[in-house]
Design brief:
62% helix, 163 residues, single chain, 6 helices, mainly alpha
C-alpha cells in the first residue's frame, strides 16, 4: 500500500506547481505525521524517489520558462523566475547531495537557443523582448550554468535595453 502512496506523492511533487520543495515537505508531513494521513515510515528508496521528484518539478518549471512557444502565454514567468527556480533547485540539490552538472548542461543548451532565437525575432520581426531581468543577473546565471556569452549573437545585450 505505501508504494502506491509514494507513487501518488511523486506525481504531486513533480507536477505540483511553482514550489516543488514546499510540496515535498507537505508530502512528508502528510505521509508521516498528519493525524489524517497514513502515518507511514518512509524508507530510504522512497525518500530518494520523493527528492528526485522535487528535482524533476523544478526542472519542468525552469524548462517551461525557457520554452520559446510559452513566451506569449499566461503561464510564462520569464528569465527572472527561471533564475529564482534555478537557485532553489541548486540549493536543494546541494543540501541533499545531488549533482547538478547534467541539469546545468541541459539548461545551458536551452538558454543558449532561447536567447539566440529571442535575439533574432526581436531584430527581424519587431517582436518586443520577453527578457525581464538585468544584465548582471543574466551574466550571473550564465556563470552558474557555464554559458559563454561569446557564443551568443554579438549584440545580444541589446535585448536587455528593450523592455
Amino acid at each position: 500500500m505505501s508504494s502506491h502512496l509514494i507513487d501518488d506523492e511523486v506525481l504531486i511533487i513533480a507536477d505540483g506547481g511553482e514550489m516543488p520543495e514546499v510540496t515535498y515537505h507537505n508530502c512528508l508531513y502528510f505521509l508521516e505525521a498528519d493525524p489524517e494521513g497514513p502515518q507511514i515510515t518512509i524508507n530510504t528508496d522512497s525518500l530518494l524517489r520523493l527528492k528526485r521528484a522535487v528535482i524533476e518539478g523544478y526542472r519542468k518549471i525552469i524548462l517551461r520558462d525557457l520554452t520559446l512557444d510559452n513566451r506569449d502565454k499566461g503561464l510564462y514567468r520569464g528569465l527572472a523566475r527561471t533564475m529564482v527556480n534555478w537557485q532553489r533547485l541548486t540549493s536543494f540539490c546541494q543540501r541533499e547531495g545531488f549533482d547538478t552538472s547534467s541539469l546545468a548542461t541541459e539548461v545551458r543548451t536551452i538558454l543558449h537557443h532561447f536567447l539566440t532565437v529571442e535575439h533574432s525575432e526581436v531584430l527581424t520581426r519587431s517582436r518586443q523582448t520577453c527578457i525581464n531581468c538585468t544584465l548582471t543577473e543574466l551574466i550571473n546565471f550564465f556563470e552558474q550554468v557555464d554559458l559563454d556569452p561569446s557564443q551568443l549573437p554579438s549584440d545580444w545585450e541589446m535585448l536587455l535595453c528593450l523592455h
